[in-house]
Design a protein that fits this description.
elongated, Archaeosine Trna-guanine Transglycosylase, Chain: A, domain 4, 17 strands, 3 domains, 4-stranded mixed beta sheet, alpha+beta, Pseudouridine synthase, 9-stranded mixed beta sheet, about 300 residues, 7 helices
Length: about 300
Amino acid sequence: MIILSSQVSCLFLLDKPEGISSFAALGTLKRSLNTRKIGHAGTLDPFATGLLIALSGKLTKAAYLLSDMDKEYEAVFRFGKETDTLDTEGRITAEAPVPVYCDIQKAAVYFSGAIKQTPPAFSAVKINGKRAYSQARKGLDVEMPERTVRINHFELIGWENPDLKVKIHCSKGTYIRSIARDLGIAAGSRAYCQSLRRTAIGPFSVNNAGIPGEVNKADGISPVEFAKIVGISVLVLSDEIADRLRSGFPPGKMGKRLPLSDVLTLCTDTTGTPAALLEKRDNVTTYRIVFDSQT
């Protein structure tokens, strides 16, 4: 059973600036809400900017729904050099002549659909239970496993030697730094990610995000709004049944079957206050997430 608290359960859109960690950006929101219960839907490296989604209260348990969503980025790849971190913070490990633009265009066509990709050694991928970056920082050789990711859209939007500006729409788990490295090699050169900005996660855009430190409780997206944005059904129940769900009573023991038709359903009481997010698995309704009242 999950006990209710007075914490605010909301989703917040932050536009992380360059030079600070995602943890620091989330810290400003924690102080604003006076809570330590803040989750996220994917961090950004300190050199990167853009959309960082934070979740508070019981809504932190919905982070997995956002993590599976596609991402959109704008980036600048600098050709002629490669760094060990594949971004501006590393040391140069390889150099090669800057390619002509037509060679970059020819190489870019291979970065579409399902592709094989090796994550950077300086990344949060776990190797034998340890973060890869913790070993790479010690100068240890890290053998990164190859993975399959999907590139839905890869657009070259500007070339000013040696910098290439790109726009990428991709699946979760895609490393833009790895694309920079691989595109450089495919074009007969070397490259690293000079700048990176995340512009969207699923239906959420950085255009609607606020600067960390300026975002407060009033800027939060409620669980009901969140459900509507991501396409989760909202079901209004009697106050009695909603209270029973909210207090942790299993939906399968309600005495009567709840009218659930979709895999995910957000249940509320008659005032619109969230009670529980239910997930149906193998035709059985499983009690997955309970949200706080908006207090």
